[in-house]
């Protein structure tokens, strides 16, 4: 609506479905300034629920800060 394809903030708390969400179609991460996410590997130990997300995050070079159970992921390329 504002004429921009960039997201300012994406808040993700999907109770263990992180693996499916970040399996494909993750280009939106390139244009998102801040991703707040709660990871749920503890729900199913050994199932690598956060693996796809963490791989995508590292490939894009996000900066990360933890606060409580929330991971704040800053797309530093959009803050330059």
The CATH C-level class name: Alpha Beta
Q: If you average the pLDDT, what whole number results? A: 86
CATH topology: Translation Initiation Factor IF3
Number of structurally distinct domains:
1
User: Quick one: biggest sheet?
Assistant: 4 strands, mixed
Main sheet: which strands, in order across?
Answer: 1-2-4-3
CATH architecture: 2-Layer Sandwich
- Silhouette: globular
What percent of residues are in strands? 25-35%
Unreliable residue runs: none
Q: Please tell me how large the radius of gyration is.
A: 13 Å
Overview of the structural elements:
- This protein has one domain (7-78): Translation Initiation Factor IF3 (2-Layer Sandwich).
- It is built from 2 helices and 4 strands; from the N terminus they run E-H-E-H-E-E.
- It has helices at residues 18-21, 51-60; strands at 7-12, 32-37, 63-67, 70-74.
- It has a 4-stranded mixed β-sheet, with no helix packed on it.
- The radius of gyration is 13 Å and the shape is globular.
- The mean pLDDT is 86.
Q: Short summary of the structure?
A:
The protein has 80 residues and is α+β, with helices and mostly antiparallel strands. The chain has a single domain, classed as 2-Layer Sandwich (Translation Initiation Factor IF3), CATH 3.30.110. It is built from two helices and four strands; from the N terminus they run βαβαββ.
């Amino acid at each position: 609506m504002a004429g921009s394809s960039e997201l300012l903030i994406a808040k993700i708390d999907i109770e263990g479905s992180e693996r499916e969400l970040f399996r494909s179609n993750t280009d939106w991460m390139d244009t998102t300034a801040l991703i707040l996410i709660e990871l749920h590997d503890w729900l199913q130990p050994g199932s690598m629920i956060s693996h796809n997300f963490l791989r995508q995050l590292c490939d894009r070079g996000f900066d990360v800060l933890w606060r409580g159970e929330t991971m704040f992921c800053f797309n530093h390329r959009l803050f330059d």
